[in-house]
Amino acid sequence: MAVGSGRHCDREGSTLAVVRGEVVSAYRDLWMWHDQRWSVYDMNSTRRKWVVKKLFAYPNALLLLLILYNLSFLYPHDVTADSYPPLPEALAALESDEEVTVTQVIVSEWSLDSNFYYTFEPNSVTPTIGFIIYPGAYIDPRSYAPAAHAIAAQGYLTVIVKMVQDLAILSYTRAERVISDHPDIEEWTIGGHSLGGPSVCAYIRESNDIIDGVVMWASYPSEGFRVDDKIIKALSIYGTKDGLVTPDEIETSRLHLPPYTQWEEITGGNHTQFGWYDTSPYPVQPEDNPADITRQQQQDIIIQATVDFLNHFELCPNDPENDYDNDIVCGDSDNCPTIPNGPNLGTCVNCGDGTIGPSCTDDGQCTSGYCNMDQNDIDNDGLGDLCDDSFPPGGNGCIDACDCEGDFDRDGDGDASDAIKFKQDFGRKPPTNPCTATNPCNGDFDCDGNVDASDAILFKQDFGRRDCPSCAGGEWCGY
Question: What residue numbers bound the domain in which 425 lies?
Answer without folding.
Answer: 400-479
